[in-house]
Amino acid sequence: MKKPVLTFFAGFVLGLSLLAQHQNIVIGNQNDPNEPSIIINPKNADVMLAGSNLDSYYISTDGGYSWTSARLESSAFGVWGDPCMLIDTVGSFYFFHLSNPPGPAWIDRIVCQKSYNQGATWNTGTGIGLNGEKAQDKEWGIVDPVNNRMYLTWTQFDNYGSALPNDSSIILFSSSLNQGATWTTPVRLNKLAGDCIDSDNTVEGAVPAIGPDGEIYVAWAGPAGLMFDKSMDGGNSWLDNDIYVADIPGGWDYNIPGIYRANGLPVTCCDLSQGDHRGTIYINWSDQRNGTDDTDVWLVTSTDGGATWSQPKRVNDDAPGKQQFFTWMTVDQSTGRLWFVFYDRRNYSDNSTDVYMAFSDDGGVSFANFKVSESPFIPTELVFFGDYTNVSAVNNVVRPIWTRLHNGNLSVLTAIVDPLIVGTGPMVPLAEESEVYPNPGQHDIYFGYKLNEAACIHLEMVDMQGRKCALLIDNVYQQAGKYRQKIDCNALGLKPGIYMLQLSNGKNTRLQKVVISAS
Fold first, then answer.
1. CATH code for the structural domain at 434-516
2. Which residue in 208, 280, 392, 493 has a CA-CA distance of 20 to 30 Å to 245?
């Protein structure tokens, strides 16, 4: 009963992957939302928050199936878009954005607003980086999961949009050691300044990442291509010279038919999981090195702390000649799996646009793509579409977020993505033997399994739409040996139907089908 069980369920999941539709959920469609951000609570993946331009935020407490919405206000600083949603280690949520204070000032600082109650209320916020009339733009942040420190990077313009040679753009960094209450004086990271035109020769796209030992990694795009810097001491000091990563042929500012403006700005992540690729740094972007009609999504990796980098690898796996753009990437820190989301026109000869995702289980060596949107849409250059998409992933709960234009109306959407249904390949057995008995069962069902080696075990039950129905073992360390887990169907409120047990050790997942029959 060992190999036949695994083979059966592998085939069962493969069949689902061919038929599966990833349920699309409209998060919001009021106030012309675009440029969205999303974050999942790592301690309770049913709770997630999202934000969109200019000032909308959205709350879900059921894993992203339903959302409530409201508009963010800050009497002190105003709200002017570029949303970045974060959560710290004690469960407080943050909405970072640009400022629009009372009076003539505009984007004169970055604003950090905080919620202690899952987005029900927000404080008025803290201003970061005020420097006279200089513009503070395109921020992104990260929380160190070990010490709860917060790090923020962004672009400062001497005079936004200016073509004067004396006006320049630089990358700035600031940190908070007290959960956003105060922030350190910003420091400059890049050695080569950019211009202020907000195009290829402007330095932009700084997204910080945390390393396994608290390192801070940052990459950005600009006149020298893709550049990288790091700090080994919490942001107190940085490299004497920036590290060149890769060129960006055609620049990061490019044209996509039907899009008001488009960019291929980079996203930086680092693997903090306990998997084989722990410590690997990833940078994801898009460019038109293969032609203006063939925008592609790219990834480079570093396994030595950013000292050296791989050659760019193409993430989208379609034939040449189609457009893929507005990419974002994240690492599921429970599994080490990479997740990408991007707009994709591989299936059409016009401007019809799908949303695709990709994943990698081998540290960015190979990628599998799948369509996540239920239907295409056609954008128009007359409607601003935003500058990015986003994705969050926590212990195999994956939620992308994107903007859609339909019948002249903008909306932001997510999808209920089940990593097991899309065939991510976490099918390597972590137990030689497992069985469910009785199966079918009605009331008390037992799951027996044998561990080949000690591991931190997570066991949950999901329905056939990938929705979590019961948490049975919550990351408990178990020695090698045989185990039996009781499933009390009545106590758990499980209705008759077909379910899947997911037994995971953080690296691999074993599936087991459970049938609950009617009394």
1. 2.60.40.10
2. 392
